[in-house]
Amino acid sequence: MIARSTYLRINQIKGKQKLDESLVSRFQLVKKRETVDFELNSEGVLCFHGRVCVLRNSELRQSILREAHSSPYTMHPGGNKLYRDLCELYWWPGLKWEITDFLSKCLTCQQVKAEHNLPSGLLQPVKIPLWKWERITMDFVSGLPLTPTKKDSIWVIVDRLTKSTHFIPVRSDYSLQKLAKLFVAEIVRLHGVQVSIISDRDPRFTSRFWRVLHEALGTRSDFSTAFHPQTDGQSERVIQILEDMLRSCVIDFKGSWEDYLPLVEFAYNNSHQSSIQMAPYEALYGCRCRTPTCWTELGERRLLGPELISEIDPSLTLEKDSEIWAEGKLSPRFIGPYRIVKRVGPIAY
């Protein structure tokens, strides 16, 4: 069924088709049966493969485009959708180009459509850190299932140089004072005071208290531009990996995500990162941390143990009546000397 407005427009087109110079030759070809592309339908309207041929009239074409694009029943479709809709009923040379030109001038589309093209201008990378944990990024993963300890969020803090991370379980209603204590206890305690911190415009990071804290520590806070997550793409990517790892843990091992968070942090920091071509722990400590998969390697190395000990052991054998120093935990480093009375084991006296 064709809408009444469309039916009236087709009748309007029919009455003017024979007067349009661009279509006169098409009519002649149809009459002479010299074309299979053009034909007259049952109502005498010239069509191209079943679609109404629209005459060369810019006002008429613009009217068709407006109705197909801006009516309450279409709601400003994109170029491909609009082209598909119009192709079912109308045809004229350069239809797709005219649709593109029409959409580029639609003010509503310019105001509400998402931008899918790359922004103009060159990328402005943030400053490269000179040392480990000197410049960091941070963000929150919120809306997680509530744990038995009432935690529902994760504070993600990433070093921009080594890509090493800390995942701190928190509650979304933690006060700024509580977050500040956690920051000092979990980050400053291990890595010292940072030079720069990049974060989004979370109200917790833009508050006066947070600014005063960083002024006291001598740290500069750099906030990302609104609706520009690329500024802190590092944290966004880590959060994506973190969520995938937590999902895997909950599926495979069940239980609360908070129980697995320390191991998730370890696994992330001990796994290879393509951006630095090594594991974060390698960049931070100089080597990867040991895992159960290292025991095979250790087992091979232990084969050399007895030979090494047998070479060194004789030189460490102490004789009776020798005098030695004893060590204590919190006592003075060495006490004595004590005289050896008897050897009671291979290395016990």
From TrEMBL:
It comes from the Eukaryota. InterPro entries: Integrase_cat-core, Integrase_H2C2, RNaseH-like_sf, RNaseH_sf, SH3_Tf2-1. GO terms for molecular function: nucleic acid binding. Residues 125-288 form the Integrase catalytic domain. This is Polyprotein. SUPFAM superfamilies: Ribonuclease H-like. GO terms for biological process: DNA integration. The lineage of its organism: Eukaryota, Viridiplantae, Streptophyta, Embryophyta, Tracheophyta. It comes from Gossypium australe.
